[in-house]
User: Fold these one by one.
Assistant:
Number 1:
Amino acid sequence: MVVFNEKELMAKEKMNTPSFVKTIWREIRNDKMALGSLILLTLILLAAYLSPLFIDQTALTRVNFFNNWKPPSADNWLGTDDGGRDVLGQLLLGTRNSFTIGLSVTLIAGVFGLTVGLIAGFYGGIVDNIIMRIIDFLMVLPSLMIIIIFVVSVPKYTIFGFILIVSAFAWFGKARLIRSRALAERELDYINASKTLGTPSWKIMFFELFPNLSSLVIVNMTLTLAGNIGLETGLTFLGFGLPAGTPSLGTLISYARNPDIVQNKWWVWLPAALLILVMMLCINYVGQAVKRASDARQRLA
Amino acid sequence: MLKFILRRTLIMIPQLLVLSLIIFLLAKAMPGDAVTSSFMSNPNVTPEQMEKMREKLGLNDSWYVQYGHWVGNAVQGDFGQSFTHKQPVTSLLAGRVGNTLLLSTGILIVTYIIAIPLGIIAGRWTDSWADKLIVTYNYFAFATPLFVFSLLMLFLFSFILGWTPIGGSVDIRIETGSFDYIVSKVKHLILPVMSGALLATFGTIQYLRNDIIDTKLKDFVKTARAKGVPESKVYTRHILRNSLLPIAAFLGYEITGLIAGSIFLEMIFSYPGLGQLFIQSVMGRDFTVVTALVMISGTAAIVGTMLSDIILSIVDPRIRID
């Protein structure tokens, strides 16, 4: 006679269903493009985040007019800009800033979108109706224009202010996505059981409903991360992004608003433009692998 | 059906009101007002004169009185005076709106010309080399930021190869309306339109490919094949008729994206349209122009979305909620 040990069974069950992180890793390992992208992205980010260790940051802000617009050489691998500052150093710092800001926007917008989406989906009915009508409206707004007006209107403009302004316009899609999944989830027995037991709503939402949507959230965040980095660099490019003195990849590219620099001083803006392109493609390839991992039907491995 | 259309149209009214209120309050929050920006370059004006000017323009009234005036005039097509250009905003916009419309229409047409065949090929021959190529291209289109892509296009085609002009909308000293004028206009449009369209194909290709893959397994398609309908006719008559209709309806949803896109494209290709005017006006604190532009863009997006919703509900009765 076989004796069923419940604990043993549960442990076995856990071994049989790998965690989401493990599934993602398996999916990436099996997709050469995604694996290559992950390695390349890690290298870029390591170089960017470790750059303060071997780059003299004060030297980067020092203006030296005798050394301006120098093409790439042994001293300055990517040449110098209008103030004689090293482009490579600015590129690394810019990557660090742009990535950090993109990540912050993604996280803040993610938390906000998640909360609104959960509330709309969990309560349903009139609450859902009101929230969705508001989101419908917000999604139609010409948000780029409004962000730009906010940026010029804010009296004490800081990096954190910029992150908040952009985040305020980045959560609509996320809320809508989470709401539609939460609406389906709330009809399931475990939620009803928990309600009957008298669990407070916020506890059901964040500790019981949310874990079941977590893979959806992770997928969406990886895919929007690239977009948010693009938005920050784009705004900085137009001149309405990071405050002056904080280098971003967009700052370097904004030199290209002058035709003479586009043509004759390509080393200032071209590396930054190509780096953004490479980073976006890498993040998206990894994001697609993460997306496949979250949906068993699409998995390659 | 009529009920849905009526309801969808009525929702627009509060939307437009809220939009105008948000824009008005934002403009109020912008540093400086009409008087300071119009006399910024004139040091001879005393504060008393400026105060008199403010009184005359009604800038000392309470905000809701000003809001009422602004909305009342805006409805009649009067957005006030531009302070940097010294002319009515409406005539300033009229001179530029044609360029932006030309650019946006061009982008839309080219997007569909590229996206529809590619989407059909990718959907019909799934997992073929052509499909893989198209899916890879679509990755690029999705991931690449518009401003980076346009700059690279400008650098490659205008500066290195010298095939296209580096900016503007038409060569100077060419007679308006002549044949050369049209040729010159088209030459200036090619690069911005291609840059915008090559990236804008993403949504259409993705939608069409998925939809065809889904539809070709449906029973009515199997029936058609079983009856001996030739394969090409299965696609043109049975599958595409279903998949292509919603694409036409998506047009209105594209407007928000086109507005954002035109800002980047017009700045990079120094194309004198509304997007470029917007950035210049924000920098010059010319806020009557700014509010007019945001209001018009917002209204266009709201009306476009409404039209798309209504057309979609006619095409696809499943989404008609009443």
Number 2:
Amino acid sequence: MTVLRTLNLVRIYQNGGVPVPAVRGVDFAVEAGEFVAIMGPSGSGKSTLVHMLGGLDVRTSGEIWLDGKRVDTLSESAWAVLRRKKIGFVFQFYNLVTNMTVADNVELPALLAGMSPREARERREYLLGELSLTERAFAAPAELSGGEQQRVALARALANGPRLLLADEPTGNLDSRNTRDVLKLLGEVHRQGQTVVVVTHDAKVASKADRVVTLADGMIVDDASMRRRRLPPGTAGDVVELRG
Amino acid sequence: MVAEWRWIRADLLARRAQVALTVLAVAGIVAALVTAATLLEEGTNPWRGLFTRGHGAHVWIHTKDAPDVAELRGLTGVTEIAGPYVSAPATLAAGGRKVPVALQEAPAVPPKVATPLMTEGRWLDPADPGGVVVERSFATATGLRPGSAFTVTGLDGATHALFVKGVAESGDQGFYPDWAPGLAWTLRQTLSTVEPAPGRSENVTGLRLADPEDTNLVVQRSVTVLAGQVQRVATWREVRASMELDNRLLGLLLALFGAAGLVGAALALANATGGRVLGQLRDLATLKSLGFTPRQVSAMLLAEHGLLGLLGILIGLAAGHVITAATLRVPPSPGQLAAIGLGTILIVLVAVLLPAWRGGRTAPIPAAPAVPPHGRLSRLARLALLVRLPPALVLGTRDAFTRRTPAVLTSAGLAVPMMMITIGLGCWATLDDFTANPAKVGQAAALSVRPGDLGAGEARLRAMADPAVLAAYPGVELDALVPWQTRTVRTRALGSSTAPYPFHVIEGRMFRERGEAVAGQGLLDLLSIRIGDRVRLTVGGTPLIVHIVGRVIEPEQDGEVLSFGIDTLAAKDAVPPHFYALVLKDGADAREVRARLLGSDRGLEVTQTVNPADRLAVIRVIIVALVVVLALIGLTTLLTASALGLRDHRRDLAVLQAMGLTPRQVMATLVTGTGILAVLGVLSGAAAGALLSRALIDWEGHGSGVGAGIGRAPTPATLAAAVLIAVGACLLVALIPARRAARARVPVTAG
């Protein structure tokens, strides 16, 4: 089942009256339970694309379909309501709400989605437990290491069990040990059936993905499924499949 | 809702000091407003204060015989009863004058209801039956003080020697001479001596009501109950009306300060909220990425900052209540409290609305940390560095203007309070000028002499005999009817056309001939006339046409006074003069001259002119309070600016340090960044205030009827001192966080 589909998605910024295209006609689809990595050099439009997929940025033209519904025409408020239930975001700079404790940060989306405070607390306890952060529940974000902060951000993104987890350079600000931990977590949630789209520079991250989409100058130049590589040798999977 | 409250709580807890300061600033302004309004009311209408303090009676019933107290007590709405007290008319003789007085019985222990409030001396004592307590305004008018001896003559013609044991105020009767006869409290036994025949005295009974609005109903009922015994009834409304002092100038000045305080509060709040929102943009973006709608974010900010404002208002109202109750011994009226509360709530909402809306419009992409737009070094800055101006100064100046809107807001946030402080100082200077040059406010004569029992000519001779008296102008004050007006205006004939009284003419010229007159602004406005017009009026039944040739500063009667030479009046009205206005020689002390004129048993009635500055004295208290509150507002603005500056430059600091700037230079950069905006704000505010204060006070003078021409700008020395203090305080406030920041070790790579 297709969770996400884009049709000829275009984003053009205006810079002092000069149009600067960031995304130039992207068509791609993400199936349920898929782990997609979007790669590409700086300025290739990766972040813009993932922001548009989550409704944080508006498209100039094209279509976005989420769970079989067209969403690119939604208003900012409608996008916000949609994000509560269906989309979880993880950012490069963690973006925990600075004045709230770890526990509050994780409970906030749950409360926002209409869970009762008790349910939200139970969900938070479960998630922090899964991510080995139980003892840091009442710490302020500033007291946490980068890796811990990113784990909290992940817990927050998963608080409502979203259909789609969007991560923008989730390991871009982490050392190798923390990168490994976060990747392990991403792998685990993916194994539990979570659909994940990750924007990354990091080949290690891409290696965890089922599929790697490569962007250059705002266009998809490569869309490679990695799953078949794990198939026994001697089959057609030896050849990397290229799609337009 | 839970999510929003969770965030609000977290945000409030994260910045307790800032929250406390905001609440304090709002509370300070509200408390100052409440106090000012109560002071104004107390100054212009002392009734409520006197009535509250003395636990007065709302209705006074005068009956021939003692009424049935039980029946009156039984009336619905009546809570307490004062009296009945026996009251007898008599004639009081003191200092060669005889005036009617009402002697009223009072218990040896001050009563619980309608308590006379002692201002001097002691209360009645059965051991001292000759001692009476005199009502204050009556005592002032008759020159009685504790210990003064006087005689009273009863209706039977017998004269009794009494003395003043004490002086007391009361909210149960208006002030003498508006409310006559004067009042004196005596013991029952003293009263029986003066007026032994019960038939010639009356009984007064006071009723205190649960709800003052029931007055009319209670009066009707008591008249019915006491069937035919009631001679007359006086209610609190009449007493209040008689005590009301119409002082539009005071009211207008107060309204001006009130408005200024509110504008200042709005700016401080808008600044604090705006600064906070700007500092939180990244968090707000994160919230939106989590699924907060723009409307939710705006509502959340509005609720958070609005609640702080509301809390400040509540604390301010409570504090105002406590302050006025403690210092003035009278709580503010509920109507005023409600008006101030509602007004400030409105201001708070307006002030918070814009930043909240802006917060709601934040783009939901939180990835990029909020960094100020990077400005380039201007040509001027490069030149400044080239000529080796201290780099800290140049960098700080550049930083100050990196964010244009907050820079303007900060400067304006300081300029407005500073402007109001300067205007307040202008008001102060104006009052000082009133006192220093009473001639400029139409009060060249410090004393006024009424002939009393003497002939007018004799009175003039005696007054002129005093070495300090320079001139004595004969005067008559009469009410005149003006066509098309349902009311009368005051006309004042003073001096003659050939030797006119030295009025302070602001526009036009002094009257020189018979039939010419000068008028106050209030009169010109009332009759919609201009200088050069002719006015027809009726004075004492005689028609009179006068030509208005000039406008004078007129502090009396809200400026609704027409002044001309005494020879303009018909002889029957002008002779003999009612009084002489005495102009004293320079340096003569009016009080001493008055004492001399009064003291030598010359039978003269001498009154000292009340300077308008004395009547406006309450403004000085308000100016001081206002300066304190405005300073608090400025402080809030400055702290916001300083915090914002630090936030913007956290990364720059590390870079500056890496470039080789010493901590002291870094600190200087930060102080310059905030300080330059502060100095700009203070200077422009002071300049605007100095330019405006004169015009504004004149405008107020015009509106109040006194007339334009009274306004003074603060003296250069005062202004310089105010600016220096303000700038010094600003730099000091900017220095503390800058010092801390400059010493902190910030890694260059901090995100």
